Structures are given as C-alpha cells and as structure tokens.
Amino acid sequence: MSKNKKRHQENENEDLAQDLDEALADEVLENEVEAEVDDEADETDLELLKAENAKLREDYLRAFAEAENTKKRCAQEIEKNNKYAISSFAKSLLSVADNLHRAIDAVNNNEGNDNCEALKKGVELTEAELMKVFEKFGITKMDIMGKVFDPNFHQVIQEVEDKSKPAGTVIAELQTGYMLNGRLLREAMVVVTK
C-alpha cells in the first residue's frame, strides 16, 4: 500500500503540477490578450491625443492670428486718431484764415493809400505764415476754380447762367474749402454755372 499510496501521491502531484502548468499557461495567455487589448487601447488613446493636440494647435494658431489682426487694427486706429486729432483746432483756425483773406481783399479795393499798403503787406505775411502752419499739420486749400461741381467737396450758394462754360463749372469761390491729410475738413462755398 505504501507503493500504491506513493504512486497515488505522485499521480496527484503530477496532476497538480499539470493543473498548475495549465493555470499558469492560461494566465500567461490571459495576460498576453490583456496586453494586446492594452496596446490597442494605448494606440487608440494615442490617436485621440494626437487628434486633440492637432485641434488645440489649430485653435492656438487661429487665436494668435486673431490677436495679431486686432493688434494691427488698434495700431491703425491709433494712427488715424493721431492724424486727425487736430480737426477741431484746424477748423477753428479756418475762420482766422478767412478774415485775413478778406482783409487783403479789402485793402486791394482801396489801393493808393500808403498806410493801406503797409497793412496789406503785414496781413499778407501773416496769411503766408498761417498757410505754412496749415501745411505743417496737413491742412491744404482746395483748388476748385474752373472745376466741375462735386457735392462731396462743394456747397453751392448760387447758380449763374454762363453759356461760355459747361453747366456745373465753379466760377466763384465765396468760402475756401480745406482738406486735412486728404480728408475733407470744410467744404467750399461756390457759385456754379447753370
């Protein structure tokens, strides 16, 4: 019996070892399957992360471009504001220029008097200096005599019949028009032909 017992014990040990080997083989196989599933999951996760990264990069580039465009628009707006900041100042000076011009015209009508000649010379010098200041700040007179009426730059005060010139031609300027850096500061008051 001891031999039988031993054999039986050996058979049991062999069966147990075989069961253990099978269990280990199953566990290794299970781990390999899990590893493959994990690898597939890792690849899927990696692809998702790459896609998310690409989307975030695109969003960043768009936001950066938008910020740059906003920066450029702000710089242009600041430049525009600086360029036209003196508009009210310039408009106020226009009446001074008009009065100087009227004084010169009044003296021209009263020629022959020496005092008038000195006054005329002083006013002409003052007007010339004022025109230099205007030019420095981008204020220019509009040259409109003999040109066709343009409602964007001229205000018609009177229409006169004149068959020698085409209809709508400016023949007299009652008030000078001025531009500030290429933009209308004040329209000219004019007389045009019918």
Describe this protein's structure.
By secondary structure, the protein is of the alpha+beta class. The protein folds into 2 domains: 83 residues; 110 residues, Nucleotide Exchange Factor Grpe, Chain A, domain 2. 66% of the residues lie in helices and 15% in strands. It is built from 3 helices and 6 strands. The strands form 2 sheets. Strands 1-4-5 form a 3-stranded antiparallel beta sheet. A 3-stranded mixed beta sheet has the order 2-6-3, with no helix packed on it. Strand 4 and strand 5 form a beta hairpin. The longest helix is centred in the first third of the chain and has 82 residues. The protein is rod-shaped. The model has no long low-confidence stretch (mean pLDDT 82).
Helix content: 55-70%
Oligomer: single chain
CATH-defined fold name of the largest domain? Nucleotide Exchange Factor Grpe, Chain A, domain 2
Strand content: 5-15%
**CATH superfamily assignment of the largest domain?**
Head domain of nucleotide exchange factor GrpE
Mean pLDDT: 82
Instruction: Specify the number of helices.
Output: 3
Task: List segments where confidence is low: pLDDT < 50 over at least 5 consecutive residues.
Answer: none
Give the overall shape, derived from the CA principal axes. rod-shaped
Determine and state the CATH class of the largest domain: Mainly Beta
Order of helices and strands: HHHEEEEEE
Distance between the termini: 145 Å
The CATH architecture term of the largest domain is: Roll
Structural class: alpha+beta
Largest sheet: 3 strands, antiparallel
Indicate how many domains the architecture comprises.
Answer: 2
